[in-house]
Amino acid sequence: MDTITLSFDPLCVDPADAAALYVELGWGTPARYSAARLRRSLAQCNVVLSAHNAAGELVGLLRALTDGALDTKILDLVIAPEYQRQGLGLRMMARFAGHRAVRGTAIYFETERKNFAFAAKCGYARRKGLAVFARTPQGMQ
C-alpha cells in the first residue's frame, strides 16, 4: 500500500473529491453527494479525518459529530475500493478514537451487517435492542 497520510484538517479535503468517493462507493447519487453538499457537511462536522495517498488523492474519509463530553457519532467512514482490506480503516478508527474532542465520550458507529467483523476489530460491540431509524429528504435516497 502507498504511503498514506492522515489529517484532521477539514481543509485538506476537496469537497468534489469527497463527493466522487461517496458516489463511486454506491452510497448515493451525485444529487445527494454533490460537492456543494459535501462542502457544507465538512464545515459542520466536529471531526473530519481524511486519508490521502502519496499522490495527494483522497482515499479515505471519516466524518463525525461530538459534544466533547458524553457522546460521539461517527457519521460515516468511506475508503476507496483499491485501499479497502489493507488496514486503512483500522488505522483511521484508531486515530479517530484518540482525538482530543472524542476521548472520554461514548462513540457510536452505525454500520451494515457485512461490516460487523470490522467494527468488532475496532473494539465496538453491538448494542442489543438498538434500532436505527432514518428519515431521508424526498428525492435524496
Write the layout of secondary structure elements.
Layout: E1 5-7, H1 15-24, H2 35-44, E2 47-52, E3 58-66, E4 71-79, H3 88-97, E5 106-109, H4 116-121
Parallel strand pairs: 4-5
Antiparallel strand pairs: 1-2, 2-3, 3-4
The structural class is: alpha+beta
Main β-sheet description: 5 strands, mixed
Gross CATH architecture: 3-Layer(aba) Sandwich
Rg computed from alpha carbons, rounded to a whole number of angstroms: 15 Å
Low-confidence stretches: none
Q: Give the total of domains.
A: 1
Distance between the termini: 34 Å
State the CATH class: Alpha Beta
Mean pLDDT: 92
Element-by-element helix/strand order: EHHEEEHEH
Into which percentage range does the β-strand content fall? Answer: 15-25%
Shape: globular
3D architecture notes:
The mean pLDDT is 92. The protein has a 5-stranded mixed beta sheet with strand order 1-2-3-4-5. The protein has one domain: Gcn5-related N-acetyltransferase (GNAT) (Aminopeptidase, 3-Layer(aba) Sandwich). The radius of gyration is 15 Å and the shape is globular. It has helices spanning 15-24, 35-44, 88-97, 116-121; strands at residues 5-7, 47-52, 58-66, 71-79, 106-109. It contains 4 helices and 5 strands. The chain has 141 residues and is of the alpha+beta class.
